[in-house]
Amino acid sequence: MNKEIIINSSASQNRVAITEDSKLVDFFVDHPEKQKMVGDIYFGKVARVLPGIRAAFIDIGLKHDAFLHFSDIDERLNELQTIFEDDSDDEDDSSRNQQDSQNQQQPQSQNQSHQPPHRSSYHLKKGEEILVQIIKVPVKDKGVRVTSAISLPGRFCVLLPFDNKIGVSKKISDYREKRRLKKLARSILPENCGLIIRTAANAQTEEALSADLKYLINAWEEIQESVKLKSPPALVYKDLSTTTSVIRDLFTKDVSKVFIDSKKLYKEIRSYVKFVQPELSEKIEYYKGKQAIFETFRIEEQIAKMMSRKVPLPSGGHIVFDHTEAMIVVDVNSGRYAAKKEQELNSLKTDLEAAREIALQLKLRDIGGLIVIDFIDLEDERNRKKIYDELRKEFKKDRAKIALLPMTEFGIIQMTRQRVRENILQSMTEVCPYCEGSGLLTKKSNLIHEIDEWFKKIRLRKWRSSITLKVHPSLGKSLKEGKISMLTKLQFKYRFRIKLIEDEQLNPQTFQILSTKTGEDLTEEI
Known about the structure:
This protein is an alpha+beta fold. It is built from 15 helices and 24 strands.
C-alpha cells in the first residue's frame, strides 16, 4: 500500500490530505479564523457548579464558559495543587497565615503566586481556580468541553503529569517490544508522571524516546511557571497547529512521501521532523509542479464527493447524508434490481458497499454524535449480521471511539462516534443567510401572497397614492410576468401606484414596502 501525505498551502488556509493508493482516507483543514483548540490548556475559574447534571462551567476567557463534566475531573487533582504553591521556604507559619488572610481580602495581582485551588469533583465552588485542557471544540452555541486530566502529546509518547501508569499503544502487538518500551519508559520517566507510548515509538531507540520525553517535561515545567505568574482566565499552553499536529501524529514509517506546495511550510515541517525523527526527513518533498497539487493527486474531485450530500456506490446505488439538530441520518438507496429472485443478493451487495463507504465518509467528514443508518431491508438474519460485521471491521481503521449496535429487523443501525472537532461540513461552510440552514426557500407565490396581505393592511390603516416595493430581481420577475402581471393586478386591487425597485443585495426571501413620497420604511410600521 502506497501511503502519502499531500499538503496544499494558500494565503487563506492549509489543507492536508492523506491517501492510500491514491484514495483519500483522511482530510484536515487549518483555518486561520478557526484555529485548532483541542489540546490547549487554560488556567480558569469555576463560574457555576450544577450537581444536578454532574458538571461545572469554567470561565477560561472564551465567549462561552467551558463545560467540565465530573467524569472528566482527574481523581488525583489534590497532587496537582503543588504547582500553584509559593516556592519560598523562609516564611514561618504565622506569616503564611497572615498572607492567606490578606489574599482573601484583596484581589491578586498579575505577578503574585496563586494559592492552591480546590480540585475535588464533588466540592468545586464558584470562583475557585482550576487547570483544564480542551478535549472537544464548541458546537454552535455551546462552549468547549474540557478535562482536568492534563496530557501532553509528543511524537512518540504522551506525558501524563501526576499519573504513575505506563501504557502502550494497542497497535504495537509484539509482546517483547511492548516489554522493552515499558522498561525503557520506567528508566527515563521522572517521578510522579505517567506515560502513554504511541504507535510511532515502535522500534525507536532510547535516545529518540528520551529526547521526546525531555521536550514534553520542559513544556510541563513552563506550564507550571506560567500558572504561578498569571491570573485566571489565561491560556497557558497552545498545542501545535492542525498541519503540524497531523505530521506529529500521522507521519509514521509506513508513509512513503510527504508533498508540500509551499516552500515556507516545507522548510518549517522538514525542520520539525529533523528534530523529532531525522530519518523521516528525506521523505518530505517540495512540490514544484505547475498544476495545483490537489489536481495532480486527484484530491479535489474526492473532496467534492466528500462535501456532497449524495455519494454514489459502485453498483449503482447511493447513500445520502442528512444533518439534523439531534443526529446524523444516513440513507442507503439501491441501484437497479436484475430480478426479484436476486433482490436479497443485490441488496446485500449494495449494503456491503454502503457500509464500507459510510465508514470512510464518517471518518473523512469527521462526523460525531448520534448516527442512524437506514440500510436496504434484508430478510436473512445472517445477511444483516454480515453488514454489522463489515461496519465493525471498517471502523477499526478509525481513530475515533465508536459504539455500534446490531442491525434491527427494519434495517436500522444505530451508532455513536466520538466528536472532537467540528466536522468538515461545519468547518468549510457557513449557514445560508437566505434559508438559514434549512435548505428550503419560500415559493414565489407565497411571497406574493404576503405582499398582498401587507398592501391590504396599508390600505386599511392609511390612504396612500403611491407605494414603493423593493424586492430581489428573482421575485421582481414573478411580479412582472404574464399578459396582465401580478403587479398590475395589485395596483388595480388597492387603487395606488406601485413603484417596483429590484435590488440584487436584498434577501430573495424578503421584501420592503416604502413610502414613495418620504422614503419611510412601512414594512416595520405596519
